[in-house]
Thiamine-monophosphate kinase
Amino acid sequence: MDEFTSIAYWTSGRQPLEWQRERGVEQGIGDDAAVITLPAVTCGLTADAHMVLAVDTMVEHVHFNSITMADEDIGYKALACNVSDIAAMGAIPLHALVAISVPKSYDVDRIRRLYDGIYACADKYGVAIIGGDTTSAPSHLTISVTVTGAVEAGRALKRSGARPGDALFVTGPIGMSAAGLHLLQHAGEAEQSGYSRLIAAHQRPAPSVRAGRLLLQSGACTSLNDSSDGLASEVWEIAEASGVRLLIDEQALPKSGSMAAYAARAGVPPLDWMLYGGEDYILTGTVTGEDAAEVREAFLREGLPFYVIGQVKTGDPGVELLLSDEGFGQSQHSGAARGGRGSRRTILIEKRGYNHFSTVNG
Amino acid sequence: MDEFTSIAYWTSGRQPLEWQRERGVEQGIGDDAAVITLPAVTCGLTADAHMVLAVDTMVEHVHFNSITMADEDIGYKALACNVSDIAAMGAIPLHALVAISVPKSYDVDRIRRLYDGIYACADKYGVAIIGGDTTSAPSHLTISVTVTGAVEAGRALKRSGARPGDALFVTGPIGMSAAGLHLLQHAGEAEQSGYSRLIAAHQRPAPSVRAGRLLLQSGACTSLNDSSDGLASEVWEIAEASGVRLLIDEQALPKSGSMAAYAARAGVPPLDWMLYGGEDYILTGTVTGEDAAEVREAFLREGLPFYVIGQVKTGDPGVELLLSDEGFGQSQHSGAARGGRGSRRTILIEKRGYNHFSTVNG
């Protein structure tokens, strides 16, 4: 099969033309570029909607390998992590372009399975696949996905609006993806089967599109990020962009029971995965303090979790952690102790997470 | 330097905020996603402009290596080949996102030089760099650029509108990039210095944005492609998408003098580079036969070249070449001879070019 036949084998007949048209697609795969009209009306937005654009890359042996991800998972997650970036702006995902560089030794059916995953995620989140590029590669697979979305003009949720008095929140338990990755790398099949939710959290993350829309519609959300690089890194970004100090209460961090159980078994301090693990694709951000309870109610009405985990303070940009009574246990933290609050200590936490040039993943 | 510091070192202060705002940028680099409003007014388009999106990837050791491209050239060309896709729709380029996967052994200044090239191209074509993603890679650099553009609603120039009687054209000489690549791979520095235009054609291609706009404004352009994969492959795409047969007249193909001179010296049939070389980033397409002379005049008034190289016929989709008197010389063609036209023979030409799965570059 040549390049053009392969692309047709991977993509044709996957999404009906009418379904794509509802998403504003005038010209999809098959020309020099895709052509779209911003479908404000289909999205229920005003005509002057803004467009949101993001790109994320997954590289074999960096983000995945044959032990941690099946081919379908690679495709699914490559799109899901991009949809998460759209969700983190409070926007509605619409279109995606897929750039893929494939070693010559990979057969076309392997890439077709990868596209099975892409289209499974696309169907779930209503994303039209409108174009892409396919090249060969001397070694390792690279997949880079670009997504578009739409948001009410002037209302995209950025990182920079957190103000003292705001409440800091997360929209789901954290550290599950890192625990799943640890399981895939270190545990046998029998043990893995007992923790399928952790493995699914790593392989098939669920971007928080509905949560992002609820936050935007609440009118109370002052800053928002997704937790792709780990909670510590993401809240640091909010602190720096907003020029505020954030305090996280360790006791308020939502901990999944299976993550805690596996952490104990593996001898890993769960807080390491929760703060530095990343790839959970939940949302973290701030809402005005007086509205936090109401936002939480709105989430609960839709069956979605919402946890207040701390607050915004004045002070130099940075992130503090109020330790639980038992202290920090075995975890490594280089931040200096900042004095007591009753019997509980507050420490500064580092700005690190999955950083591609200087640190390692948890 | 960590990832965030590196990105700032490569990108900050490059494009003034006001300059980006004129291109509709509400939020550029520095959040989960970029936010734009389609700047129809600044482009001089109607308010219901359509948006055009394309992505193209360049992979080290596939598209370039340290012999063929300096770091600045890699960045310049990675954006230029995307701008060319926008030009090939008759659209105006506006924004770009840059996804780059970098081996750990590459230092930050090398990538900064690559960004120097990206921004040099961005400035030349008025493209706002609004986001991206940076990851590490186990080996070889991969750069994937996504571009947006705007075009009058419903008027994007596709591949599918060629009709019998139309004239087939190119907007510049072809084969120069392939000749430049051959020089870089095979010739010494002294010889290279005599052919700087060929080398520039390979390293710093000039996408045909103005030509694309002229073609759209003429109202006479029925199909359009850029020649990224080589003329043979691109006109084949038009033939197949339009359901027509195309005839190229070898004598009408615009041949650069330096390309012909170097081809003779290197012992390569120039037609191989002209038909199968690719990466020239000129435009090829069709205009209605009765308007061809007028379109050519419009190009000449702006100092731009325009060559009619053949015509659209009825018949099974395919591409024929009317050989010049002296025949095809040493070049390899597997197409069957199709009988004479006076003393000149017509052959079928293959649908090949730079195809990442089955063939080699000329």
Summary: Chain A has two domains: 3-151, 167-348. The first strand of chain A starts at residue 25 and ends at 27. Chain A has 13 helices and 14 strands. The two ends of chain A are 41 Å apart (CA to CA).
